[in-house]
């Protein structure tokens, strides 16, 4: 038995029956997540938001355990097939919950723009690689378990679709933990919901023959609305925060520039491989290097690059280290955006610096994920950090007493309003001193 | 006006009258604190405790502002000289509160064992150095302000002894913030006290002609006890946690070894200067290098050292990165300690490795601070992280209606009990696999 | 100076400058509110919701004080005329806040259906009556103060319209306290919002030449939405709770019956006067009797009436004492409602009991208040307990940097959605055993 | 299944397997507890403390269920005999937890001084009486269950001593709930402890062949200390609060006077029987009357008595209704107490009023309960409200890995200090206007 204290969930306990979780926590791949902040540069705007992907991963495993235990204890309703099914996959469910983020690199978003590989691919690469400790622990428990965890994370695990949904859908344990945790750590007061009631109201049901994670119709509607509103506010105020977005884009530009000028650093094998474009999730050597990357390496590189001969690399490094973040001006019309960009580009050229780096047209909509509750189609990424893989369930269902599903936006005028809302977050970014 | 959200204090606001705080926050020396965790390796035992010295510093400035505002608003009691005095030094008080930790390096404790310089000396060095941004901001407000801040931090500022005590005594804003913050972030449920009531009960009084920060006798005794108990529990469970202590000692050993084998890293100017023993708080060049140090650099060095030719350096680096922390066994008698050390040293020699590094006799009492509320004389450091400079007020006073002071341990049998308590935290540390 | 502890606001302090508040708290008219529960029978559905109108009144006075202090301390923005104006009326503002509910009787709603007098009329009657302690305290402070407090509560105080709005509008201190308090006490997790941020974002502005209490446009939109959502949920789940509504209607019927059968009780002068229809807010004698009414008297009457010769009175008394509350069935169509009522009436007649008492067509829309944020016109009362007097400001405004007001529902698609929502709460109530 | 929201425990759920709890909640004897405040007149000093014995009883049943579920789920340690034993008595345990307070009257303390019967005797009387609903529900579940519940409450149930201890010992579910609840409702910030950790650390062990409820030695010591400190503070600041104590003594005097002058009220059968000394826990008729008593009846009696011909009864009634509570002066020496009493008695006689009623020598130590953690022998009642029956376990034990018990005060210097502390709360009470 192993217990942790946690600011979000208070007490996190894994009993001996879940020893696999304890063993996985002790692997170096999971320990690495201690050195990667969940919100990347989110703490630039919300100074308390300094928590790591490690503590988030613990939280997701904890919520998964609570949900499975609640199913087991719910003596009232006959346990149905879907629930029994989930119980059978307890070890798989807990392992997947704990490991769902092990492929994240530092400043995930910016890194992906350089690797051109989504972090999920690294996650499954790490799970499948026979040299990783997580692979070894999983195989030690059950032959083939690492592959099954990979398929849950890839959303292709067919024996229990409910399990897949529990980890990745509109209402999954990953989101529940990160929303609660990000809300607490940022101190953003509107971003909370009652997780006790949410767990109390959660149900496994069926929609068009496919298992879905949903909520009890009577108990769940208001908490579902509250949860959706929480997500909405977290995007509005935290994830798309002007300064945080600007800082993230600056890291992206920094890494692009480092790649462009091939700014290798002696001894930084992982970073150098990254800059050479050699980090691939299917290659053992690559994975081993990738697993060395963490926030500290990128920050240290900035320290070293702040004396690099390339002026742009030097300048971006120092700006990020000293929090001289670009100013972001909202683009409110095509014309105003066009004019502003043109004006700033002329300014850049007048100062003899490259507009490619110093005048940035940032649309938060640059990612492909479509989330019907947050955005209208095509307008905007709903999740700046974790683009959800294809096929994620795009709806939340409320199940009535007969088990019949009701799509949330159909029953809730509030969710309907949020769904139809177009969110724009296009901004022109440029050095603060030009403002 | 500038506002921050914070998990501890919710809303932190600095109005325009306190513009200096906003300007100081934007300096690179203060921004550096974002990259240094308040509890060093505290998150090894409490995964949520990942907060930085930056957010703590904001919290201390916030508490100082609240206290000063409360004095101003307390229309009831005639504002006495001591209070008026504090109001006059508002800018100084807020600046000192925000800046009190800027001299901290990464893993403060371990670093000091290598630099042989206390972090406070770097703090005052940074304040006095004309090249730092904080110095420039302070002098821009008022000539000589940087020196006055330095003297508050050195506890030598005579015009207002109350101000000195507010920042550094048994009951100061620094402690109040870090206890609350560490308690929240660790999730350690016993470590809380009611900060609203504490601020409500705080008083500036006089003891033997010297101003002291204390509490109202009637309102303050229970909250003072609660605060002392909170400190006691935080030491017992968090600051002296077996695994955290072991990890800290391992970082100390790592840096010692790196120094011994002169394990310089190309481009790591600050770290190399550290290993060469060249970081001095009075030297401009040194200070500039020192200000580059942060947690990320040390972690990155471990990545690089994990391929170093020195076996010990390599091994310690990997153990720390992958959280293979030494086991700690309590020493319960001289004899048992002696036997255990001897046994482990033989084991080390049998394996051909150095007992100097692999068998460690760790007494948490290695620091000089005497805190009458926590320890009996000479037994043990009360504060593993922030050794308080000489002359810190060693008592908390309760002031009655006439202003007469009552020493807390005299009025409180609980504090008396805590004071007389000897705390031992001597442990023998060695590789976990020998256990 | 006087301080209170409070589960909602933690520490409530009134300094000597606000001595009037302390003196008013000690009057018997304010002390009476300790014996009247804020939510009447709300604890029937939410067992923790047992708080009194007394502690709510303290909370409103506390919030008012905080708001006034915040205005005074906001040195940043020039204090404008509207703000200066409010400061001038500090004593009036605090007194009005504390006293706004003194005219409430027990089970306010039900009582008003018998007295045919709104509780506000008793409030102003009590203020104006020279025999009450509150009148005497107010006049002792300032001649005419009691009249001014009355006019604030009647919303006719012209010298400071802002003050009137602070106590009674869409965003007033009364609502802020009761929403927070009811949410905490019921334990209803969705009913919370961040009061610190709300106070931080509140502004006094001008709309069409009339002062209005509103919010800063940039800071206030999300918190305003959160506040509106909180109200929405509290109505949905707490104030219109099926069982609570049924119990309230039963008390109404009980009192009607007692009046019908003139069920006087020896010594119960106040209750007997009520049953005789003699309680008038303008009559000294009446007021004095009215001020004896409290929850305990009604409950005790039920004890006595449970042995009354009238079968209906006896039955309703026992049902309420033993929580045998009527079942409530939602009316989903005119036809279904008609059928259900007919069926139940036949049942009643078959059992030889009066359908007038045992089959109740309860529409929560029976009150006149139109709240654009909660209901569409004419559909439903938004506030089952405190019908807001005519002329209450019906909008919340967000003020931009130039002071220009933006109506909340215009800027917020969420509030717009809530506003256009029709809420039905029509139910047929009848004895549970018929279900 | 039935769920409740609660400000203390958030969500309280009883599944169908515990249907008996739901049925018992619906009895009129349990419903009566809604009309009796847990802290009697505690809200006089802490205005938020208005919660009833009903919601407390729900909380105790909830904690009992959580503890039993935790035992069942603790798959790690083999479930031992003591635990299996407790599981067997699940229905009994939950029923006893819910019903432990049904014998409480209004203002329990004061009432007992008139009835000369402890409330526990009424509790068991009610359980045994075939006419009560609780008796009938219990017997409906299992013949003899009502008697078994009675014996648990009388502490004579031998088949499971652990069950008895869980409900009544130094560390029982009753205390855990009331301390948490009273702390939350009063807003008294020092009175909290981490109930999650407490439940996590609780163990059933054996001491001298007798089952005891205790804590894990490693995990439990600090939380045990915190719990003991919480109790200490709640006594110091809440339960023995000067004004609350004075008000309670005044109610006692009021009832004594009413008895003395035989101030019967028409229709108040229960109260009149009380004044006649006819309420006996073993008499059906008596019980039925006793079960009509609630706070409202006493308050209503005061309204009526405030016009009684007896001057003392009239005066006490009005003082209590309007919160003109007697002043309490601490007796710091025999001589000072003697002098003060003499002075006040002369004052009373000069005013022609009875010193027996107007000058009260109140020692909070008047009850027999000896609690080694709070008081030294003979000094003072530790529990002004619930004198614990003889034979209550007087110690808390910490169980080590081998199951060996360590008495808490032996391992904890803090508890030792609290235990040896003498607490005096002797005060002279008299009308405030004489002060």
Structure description:
4 copies of one chain form a homotetramer. In chain A, strand 3 (202-207) and strand 4 form a beta hairpin. The radius of gyration of chain A is 22 Å and the shape is globular. Chain A has a 4-stranded mixed sheet. In chain A, strands 5-9-6 form a 3-stranded antiparallel sheet, with helices on both faces. Chain A is an alpha+beta fold. Chain A has 2 domains: 2-239 and 396-418, Hypothetical protein af1432 (Orthogonal Bundle); 242-366 and 425-434, Growth Hormone, Chain: A. Chain A contains 22 helices and 9 strands. The N and C termini of chain A lie far apart (57 Å). Chains in contact: A-B, A-C, A-D, B-C, B-D, C-D. Chains A and B meet through strand 1, helix 2, helix 3, helix 11 and helix 17 of A and strand 1, helix 2, helix 3, helix 11 and helix 17 of B.
CATH topology of the largest domain in chain A: Hypothetical protein af1432
Number of domains of chain A: 2
Count the beta strands of chain A.
Answer: 9
CATH class of the largest domain in chain A: Mainly Alpha
Question: Which oligomeric form is depicted?
Answer: homotetramer
Q: Name the structural class of chain A.
A: alpha+beta
The biggest sheet of chain A amounts to: 4 strands, mixed
Mean pLDDT of chain A: 89
Rg of chain A is 22 Å
N/C terminus separation of chain A: 57 Å
The CATH superfamily name of the largest domain in chain A is Hypothetical protein af1432
Query: What portion of residues of chain A belong to β-strands?
Result: 5-15%
Number of helical regions of chain A: 22
Spatially, the strands of the biggest sheet of chain A line up as: 3-4-7-8
Uncertain parts of chain A: 366-392
CATH architecture of the largest domain in chain A: Orthogonal Bundle
Q: How much helical structure, as a percent, in the residues of chain A? A: 40-55%
* Largest contact between chains: A-B, 49 and 49 residues
Shape of chain A: globular
């Amino acid at each position: 038995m192993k217990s942790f204290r946690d600011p979000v969930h208070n007490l996190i306990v894994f009993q001996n029956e879940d020893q696999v979780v304890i063993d996985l926590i002790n692997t170096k791949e999971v320990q690495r997540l201690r050195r990667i902040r969940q919100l990347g540069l989110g703490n630039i705007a919300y100074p308390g938001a300094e928590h790591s992907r490690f503590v988030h991963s613990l939280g997701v495993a904890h919520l998964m355990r609570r949900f499975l235990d609640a199913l087991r204890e719910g003596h009232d309703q006959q346990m149905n097939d879907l629930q029994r099914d989930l119980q059978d996959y307890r070890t798989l469910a807990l392992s997947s919950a704990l490991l769902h983020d092990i492929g994240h690199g530092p400043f995930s978003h910016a890194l992906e723009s350089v690797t051109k590989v989504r972090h999920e691919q690294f996650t499954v690469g790490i799970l499948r690689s026979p040299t990783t400790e997580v692979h070894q622990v999983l195989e030690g428990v059950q032959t083939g378990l690492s592959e099954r965890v990979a398929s849950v994370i890839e959303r292709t695990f067919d024996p229990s679709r409910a399990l897949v949904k529990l980890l990745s859908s509109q209402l999954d344990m990953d989101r529940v933990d990160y929303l609660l945790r990000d809300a607490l750590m940022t101190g953003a007061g509107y971003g909370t919901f009652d997780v006790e009631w949410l767990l109390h109201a959660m149900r496994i049901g069926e929609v068009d023959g496919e298992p879905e994670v949903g909520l009890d119709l009577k108990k769940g509607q208001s908490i579902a609305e509250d949860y959706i509103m929480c997500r909405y506010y977290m995007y509005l105020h935290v994830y798309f925060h002007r300064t945080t977005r600007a800082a993230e884009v600056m890291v992206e530009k920094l890494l692009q520039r480092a790649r462009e000028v091939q700014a290798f650093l002696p001894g930084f094998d992982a970073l150098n491989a990254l800059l050479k474009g050699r980090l691939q999730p299917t290659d053992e050597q690559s994975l081993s290097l990738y697993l060395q990357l963490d926030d500290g390496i990128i920050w240290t590189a900035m320290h070293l690059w702040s004396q690099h001969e390339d002026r742009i690399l030097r300048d971006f490094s120092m700006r990020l280290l000293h929090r001289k973040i670009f100013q972001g001006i909202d683009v409110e019309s095509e014309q105003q955006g066009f004019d502003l960009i043109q004006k700033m580009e002329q300014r850049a050229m007048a100062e003899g610096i490259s507009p490619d780096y110093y005048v940035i047209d940032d649309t938060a909509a640059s990612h492909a994920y479509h989330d019907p509750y947050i955005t209208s189609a095509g307008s905007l990424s709903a999740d700046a950090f974790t683009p959800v893989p294809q096929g994620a369930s795009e709806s939340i269902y409320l199940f009535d007493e007969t088990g019949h599903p009701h799509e949330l936006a159909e029953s809730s005028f509030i969710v309907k309003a949020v769904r139809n809302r177009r969110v724009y977050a296009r901004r022109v970014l440029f050095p603060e001193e030009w403002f």
